[in-house]
């Protein structure tokens, strides 16, 4: 019999403005999903294969996109799942400070290689008051340094999920002896061997702290502002398939290595309606409109605001050129050094979306960074 | 009061309509804008796809041309190589011919060949001699060896004969003693066996007599027993037969009486029925006669009533006409 994970999930039905509770069953071996409505005692979705989902996507607090519907996993539905997952799948929260933002790609690469799952990410610019609120109840010496570091420029907050996530990052950062243990991922150890990285990453030390920091950062109560500039900038969306293939860090490294700068970043789990609205301009223009929408809605994507380091150049044009033709097959032939040629596999799975209309850059950026906020 | 209410209502309606109108207008604008954007996007994408097609074509053409060029280059290099090889071959051949044409060289060559052949012949003769001497030596060795073997065999045979004679002389006496002992043993054994068999025969005879008398007694006893069994069987059978006969007689008697009673009853019944039928028949006949009389009377009355009126009172009912009826 195949292994089954059971979760309690909630779906917010917009038309009725109520959130409904469901039981989600994920069959690990068959990569299949079943949704049961306990209220009506009826099957909501029969056992269906979902190749785009993996075991890593299922944990308490994750958001899962099933045929365009976003299900928020709120609890474990049985003891077996709780015993299996609650022990190992832990959340942790890190802040990548401004000083090491140019190495964001490398950091993400090594995190992904070390089996860390990125569930949330956002680039913000702290104000002094926000930092004070954030650092309330923390060590004074540490907080004063952190305060100055966070005030110096934008920082990226990332929620990570992995087995013993807190311990792994904590020991690596502290260069503790436990870190030398062979069980710890090598790429993570090599990453934290560098002093600038150790200084440039803040991580929560306990589970309570993780919860507090993550809610402070991602629940929009404290008015944290994202750093979107909307001036000679363009939008790049790293598509869910590229993130699932573990190419997020590589793509960001490629972008930063080719005279582009990331000025804003946010991880989204878009609902199908939002995806359709976002791609509205492509309806009737591209024949792959529907697969494009379903790809974007199939999981978490990362939205980036990108500017050219050379301010005289047009970011939109330069970045579009850098992304290459929409079809990766053509891109591989004509522009083998472009992003889509390197990371894409088909017209819909072409790794990144970039703004195609020059007038739409602001519109698209606003949609992803302000309207959906 | 009513006027104020009316004005308020109209104001509200106006505002509502105004907002609706604005929303509609905005949506219209958005639609138009979207369409415009779509057109622009389509143009951009079409232009790009055309450009990419051109580039692809160019690339393909370039590849084909480069392949063609490469092939040509390869053919040219191969041609040049072949030419060079031909030239070299020609040079060699010419040199060879020149050498062959030179008389002194040819003489020298023939002399050299002659010397070489003579040397070879000498070497061959020496080799043959060596071979002959070797063969002779081997043959001699063989002969020596065979002679040695023959001598050894002769010596062995003589020694064996001597040994055999000595052994035969020693063993003669022992063999005679053994034979005698064996004979004695056989005699003893045969005597003991004879004694044993005689005793056994005697014992068997006595046992045989006893067994015969016992068999006779047993047979007698068996016959007696069988006789008694037969007697008892006969008496039993007689008793059973008499009882069965008596039973049969009783049963027959009961059956007969029952049959007689039944026959009597049936006869009685038939007689009674006959009497009843006769009476019934009489009554029925009387009734039929009465009915006939009454019918005749009625017909006579009818005739009387309709006499001389010209009415047809009795008519034969129409017979159906058809193949089936016929």
UniProtKB/TrEMBL annotation, chain A:
Its main location: cytoplasm. PROSITE patterns: DM10, NDPK_LIKE. Residues 1-89 form the DM10 domain. InterPro entries: DM10_dom, NDK-like_dom, NDK-like_dom_sf, NDPK7, NDPk7B. It is found in: Cytoplasm, Cytoskeleton, Cilium axoneme. The keyword Nucleotide-binding does not apply. GO terms for cellular component: axonemal microtubule; centrosome. Pfam families: DM10_dom, NDK. GO terms for molecular function: ATP binding; nucleoside diphosphate kinase activity. Keywords: Cell projection, Cytoplasm, Cytoskeleton, Kinase, Transferase. Belongs to the NDK family. This is Nucleoside diphosphate kinase 7. The lineage of its organism: Eukaryota, Metazoa, Ecdysozoa, Arthropoda, Hexapoda.
Automatic annotation (TrEMBL), chain B:
It comes from the Eukaryota. Residues 50-135 form a coiled coil. Keywords: Coiled coil. This is mRNA export factor GLE1. The lineage of its organism: Eukaryota, Metazoa, Ecdysozoa, Arthropoda, Hexapoda.
């Amino acid at each position: 019999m195949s292994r089954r994970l059971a979760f309690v999930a909630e779906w917010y039905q917009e038309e009725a403005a109520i959130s409904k509770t469901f039981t989600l069953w994920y069959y690990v071996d068959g990569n299949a999903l079943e949704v049961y409505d306990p209220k009506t005692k009826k099957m909501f979705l029969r056992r269906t294969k979902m190749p785009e989902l993996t075991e890593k996507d299922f944990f308490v607090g994750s958001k899962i996109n099933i045929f365009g519907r976003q299900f928020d996993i709120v609890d474990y539905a049985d003891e077996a799942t709780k015993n299996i997952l609650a022990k190992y799948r832990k959340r942790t929260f890190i802040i990548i400070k401004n000083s090491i933002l140019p190495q964001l790609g490398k950091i993400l690469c090594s995190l992904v290689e070390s089996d860390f799952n990125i569930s949330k990410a956002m680039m913000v610019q702290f104000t002094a008051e926000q930092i004070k609120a954030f650092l309330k109840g923390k060590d004074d010496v540490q907080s004063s340094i952190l305060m100055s570091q966070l005030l110096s420029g934008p920082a990226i907050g990332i929620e990570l999920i992995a087995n013993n996530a807190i311990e792994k990052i904590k020991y690596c950062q502290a260069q503790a002896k436990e870190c030398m243990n062979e069980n710890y991922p090598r790429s993570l150890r090599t990453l934290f061997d560098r002093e600038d990285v150790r200084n440039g990453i803040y991580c929560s030390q306990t589970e309570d702290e993780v919860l507090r920091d993550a809610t402070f950062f991602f629940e929009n109560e404290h008015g944290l502002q994202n750093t979107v500039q909307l001036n000679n900038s363009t939008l790049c969306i790293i598509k869910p398939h590229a993130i699932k293939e573990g190419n997020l860090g590589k793509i960001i490294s490629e972008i930063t290595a080719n005279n582009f700068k990331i000025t804003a970043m946010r991880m989204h789990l878009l609902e199908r309606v939002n995806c359709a609205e976002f791609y509205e301009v492509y309806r009737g223009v591209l024949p792959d409109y529907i697969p494009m929408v379903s790809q974007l809605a199939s999981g978490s994507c990362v939205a980036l605001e990108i500017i050219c380091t050379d301010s005289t150049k047009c970011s939109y044009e330069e970045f579009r050129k850098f992304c290459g033709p929409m079809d990766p097959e053509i891109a591989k032939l004509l522009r083998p050094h472009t992003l889509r040629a390197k990371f894409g596999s088909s017209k819909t799975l072409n790794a990144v979306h970039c703004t195609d209309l020059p007038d739409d850059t602001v519109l698209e950026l606003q949609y992803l960074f302000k309207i959906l906020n | 009061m009513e006027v104020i209410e009316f004005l308020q209502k109209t104001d509200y309606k106006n505002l509502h309509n105004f907002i609706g109108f604005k929303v509609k207008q905005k949506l219209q604008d958005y639609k138009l804008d979207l369409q415009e954007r779509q057109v622009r996007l389509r143009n951009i994408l079409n232009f790009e796809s055309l450009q990419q097609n051109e580039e692809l074509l160019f690339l393909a053409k370039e590849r084909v041309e480069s392949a063609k060029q490469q092939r040509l280059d390869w053919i040219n290099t191969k041609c040049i190589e072949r030419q060079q090889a031909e030239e070299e071959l020609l040079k060699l051949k010419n040199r060879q011919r020149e050498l062959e044409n030179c008389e002194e060289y040819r003489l020298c060559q023939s002399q050299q060949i002659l010397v070489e052949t003579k040397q070879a012949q000498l070497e061959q003769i020496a080799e043959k001699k060596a071979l002959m001497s070797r063969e002779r030596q081997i043959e001699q060795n063989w002969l020596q060896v065979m002679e040695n073997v023959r001598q050894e065999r002769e010596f062995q045979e003589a020694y064996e004969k001597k040994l055999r004679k000595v052994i035969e002389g020693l063993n003669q006496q022992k063999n005679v003693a053994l034979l005698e002992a064996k004979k004695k043993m056989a005699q003893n054994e045969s005597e003991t066996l004879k004694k044993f068999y005689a005793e056994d025969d005697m014992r068997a005879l006595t046992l045989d007599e006893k067994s015969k008398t016992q068999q006779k007694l047993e047979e007698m006893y068996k016959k007696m027993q069988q006789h008694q069994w037969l007697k008892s069987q006969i008496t039993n059978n007689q008793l059973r037969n008499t009882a069965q006969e008596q039973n049969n007689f009783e049963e027959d008697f009961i059956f007969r009486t029952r049959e007689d009673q039944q026959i009597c009853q049936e006869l009685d019944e038939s007689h009674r029925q006959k009497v009843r039928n006769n009476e019934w028949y009489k009554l029925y006949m009387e009734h039929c006669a009465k009915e006939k009389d009454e019918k005749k009377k009625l017909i006579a009355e009818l005739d009387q009533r309709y006499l001389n009126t010209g009415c047809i009172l009795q008519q034969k009912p129409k017979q159906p006409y058809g193949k089936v009826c016929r």
